[in-house]
Amino acid sequence: MNTLLVIAHGSRLKESNEEIIKFAKSIKDLSDDSFDVKYAYLELAEPSIFESLDSCIKNNPSGKIKILPYFLAKGKHVKVDIPNEIDKIKELYKNANIEVLPHLGKIDGLAQLIINNYALNEK
């Protein structure tokens, strides 16, 4: 089974980290069960990116892992920090099938989603 791994920054605030857990669960609930959904944090919370990737690979060595960086902009975390964590796991698992998806801010239709959800286009 393939896995979607949602990677967020992580926070010292429990409620913030719980939002990511709920977000991952909502994706799983809406999916057709053709893939699993997991989450990880870059820092300040667990599981770490390394821990989640390690678990995904150990539980399903032949599965593909698609990583969704839960970030609006392509800053240092998206450009450097997340790839560095992925490189660490690839050193351990040379054949790991990992694909990094565009970060959240690059998702097609995001602007329209904001308009639709906040009724900014009311007449």
UniProtKB/TrEMBL annotation:
SUPFAM superfamilies linked to this entry: Chelatase
This protein's name: CbiX/SirB N-terminal domain-containing protein
Gene3D superfamilies noted in UniProt: 3.40.50.1400
InterPro entries: CbiX-like, Sirohydro_Cobaltochel/CbiX
Matching Pfam families: CbiX
Keywords associated with the record: Lyase, Metal-binding
